[in-house]
Amino acid sequence: MRGYRGIKYTLFICCYVFWVVSAVLIAVGIYAKIAKEKDVVDTLTVDPALLLIVVGSVMFLITFLGCFGALRNATCLLKMFLGILVAVLLLQIAAGVVGYLFTDMVMERTERLMMKAIVRYREDQDLENAIDFIQKKFQCCGVESYKDWSHNVYFECSDTNPSLEACGVPFSCCIHQQNQTVLNTMCGYGMQQLEERSAGQDVFTIGCLEKIVWWAKNNLLLVAGLTAGLLLLEVCMICLAAAQISRIKKVQQQQKENAARSKSERKDSYWYPAFADFDDE
């Protein structure tokens, strides 16, 4: 009985933690979506707010099935939870295998997605903040190089571009000087007109795709550890759900057997007094 309670409440606590996290993701995504202007981009692949809402909603549904099913011993909900988790685990493994076998195709798709995000820069405040964060964090600029920013209408390097930022790059591409105390948001102006060696003195010229791949290779143990930890957690939750379903079925089977035995004993008890009287005579 203690083992069953341990399985039950361990599964409930794990699901409850992820349930709360998913609710926070949904709340943040909805707040960001409401705070935006009505004419901003609403594409799932380049809208962080919409992505948060979708991911949070899926997590909320899955973890709700696990929480309620574990707490109420509902085998139907636990089976749904178990089936979804197994499907998610298999999809993650399949994605990893496909990514390893078709690395070039994955890199090409990633490059297209990142370039699309650059094109949408300034159309979505959340997307703009995300790109600025990545460029500052990885000390990079653009997808392949700093000149990729010419694909954006604000930074397009052409004589017909009326923008003040024409032929420039965002300030997040700028190299932060050690003695700099005031942020210069105009530091990237005109950098696309310079050669890479000259521009490299003031801005990062290497693309973010190369820097991210380089970071992943140099932190392979960290990436592998996080991936293995996530997969292990999913496997543990699958095992806990399967174990609770098995325990519930055993208890239900025992209850049926006890009920049948009790019913049989009650039927037999109607005859015992008659036979007892016969024996006494």
UniProtKB/TrEMBL annotation:
Transmembrane segments: 9-30, 50-71, 80-102, 220-243
Topology class, membrane: Multi-pass membrane protein
A GO MF label: enzyme binding
Subcellular location: Cell junction, Adherens junction; Cell membrane; Cytoplasm; Membrane
Keywords: Cell junction, Cell membrane, Cytoplasm, Disulfide bond, Glycoprotein, Membrane, Transmembrane, Transmembrane helix
Pfam families: Tetraspanin
Superkingdom of this protein's organism: Eukaryota
Any one of the GO BP annotations: protein maturation
Gene Ontology CC, one term: pore complex
Disulfide bond entries: 141-157
Database matches in PANTHER family: TETRASPANIN
Family: Belongs to the tetraspanin (TM4SF) family.
Protein's UniProt name: Tetraspanin
Lineage of source species: Eukaryota, Metazoa, Chordata, Craniata, Vertebrata
